[in-house]
Design goal:
- By secondary structure, the chain is of the alpha/beta class.
- Helices cover 44% and strands 16% of the residues.
- The protein has a single domain (4-220, 292-340), classed as Luciferase-like domain (TIM Barrel, Alpha-Beta Barrel).
- The two termini are 24 Å apart.
Length: 348
């Protein structure tokens, strides 16, 4: 079976425009799209998902990612079950800590325990089962039937083990270096086995930072702020080490932590690039190669072939665009990359 490839689609414009772009993704040959959930930065994810599902026929549509702190898990369960009714088998819920959603309203992101409890609650409610909320036992009246699978977005080892214990799969932010991939899968499988589950039943989706330009150097330069973000978060150190990289001697500018809402989603993108200029070009090249698909269309096509040979089955392409659609990447896949992979374009 060919490797699955999903593209990030931020609901950054009026819903009909978002859906029109999702339809372009479907026609181009993408297997799925992931829609951001960040209540002050984007349009509502579930409204956007519903409209897209109503106006497409084959493409998978996922929340990428929602969280259990700005939305109560019972609210998530109801929303997830509702979109499942629109297009059974095509709606997916990816849930994570909710950094940008939480940061914009001044609350902490979800803890590992909150994510675990949220997934357990959601799956019980969506299945139509009763659930205890303190002194109240209740159920989701429209639960049962076809439900949306729930994936946990994971970067650290504890969350990966939890994904193995309770989720239908994991969306992993480890990069795509083979050694990092193998280590992450082992953690998920350990969690599944500890919970008495079959690890083979869980899907692993690997997030690829994806920036495509006609020039390799230009693509890497566009990825600079995203590469720096990897150095800012201690969790990523494990995956950099697995890939044979150590940048602990680099001094990071303090202003990076002052960008709103954070570096990957910075509204002042020029400022973000300025603050990230400290990263040496050779380090940038190493980070780009481990993070995902950064380069020319031909380079990216070869990287995907290598990933498929290494046993990766599902990639989620996350571009540098948060407030615009990834029109350039879509065109590159439609016109060059998918044909190079032997995938034919869907009829329009």
């Amino acid at each position: 079976m060919a490797i699955k490839i999903d593209l990030r689609v931020p609901p950054c414009k009026p819903v009909p425009e978002v859906t029109a772009f999702v339809k372009e993704c479907e026609d181009a040959g993408f297997d799925g799209v992931g829609m951001l959930d960040s209540q002050l930065l984007e349009r509502d994810v579930f409204v956007s998902m519903a409209h897209a599902l109503l106006n497409t026929s084959t493409i998978q549509v996922s929340s990428a990612v929602t969280n259990p702190v700005t939305r109560h898990p019972s609210v998530l369960a109801s929303a997830a079950q509702t979109v499942s009714e629109i297009a059974p088998g095509r709606a997916n819920i990816w849930i994570g800590r909710g950094y940008s959603s939480a940061n914009t309203v001044g609350i902490p992101p979800a803890t590992v325990r909150q994510m675990r409890d949220a997934v357990v609650m959601m799956k019980e409610l969506m299945a139509g089962n009763q659930f205890d909320f303190g002194n109240i036992t209740t159920r989701l009246r429209h639960g049962g039937g076809v439900t949306a699978p729930v994936y946990i977005a994971a970067t650290g080892p504890r969350v990966m083990k939890v994904a193995g214990e309770v989720a239908d799969g994991a969306v992993l932010m480890t990069g795509i270096h083979p050694d990092a991939v193998a280590e992450a899968r082992n953690l998920i499988f350990d969690g599944a086995k500890a919970a008495g589950r079959n690890p083979d039943d869980l899907e692993t989706i690997f997030t690829c930072t994806t920036i495509i330009r006609d020039d390799l150097k230009e693509a890497r330069e566009m990825a600079r702020p995203l590469a720096v973000q990897r150095l800012m978060q201690p969790t990523f150190a494990r995956w950099l080490k697995a890939a044979g990289m150590d940048f602990s001697d680099l001094e990071l500018p303090r202003g990076l932590w002052e960008l709103y809402p954070d570096v990957p989603h910075a509204e002042d993108w020029e400022k973000a690039k300025e603050l990230c200029a400290f990263l040496p070009d050779d380090a940038l090249a190493q980070l780009c190669d481990s993070m995902g698909l950064i380069g020319t269309p031909e380079h990216v096509a070869e990287r995907i072939k290598q990933a498929e040979k290494a046993g990766l089955e599902h990639l989620y392409l996350m571009t540098e665009q948060t407030y615009e659609f990834a029109t350039g990447e879509l065109a590159a896949f439609r016109d060059t990359i998918f044909p190079a992979l032997g995938r034919t374009k869907q009829p329009v």
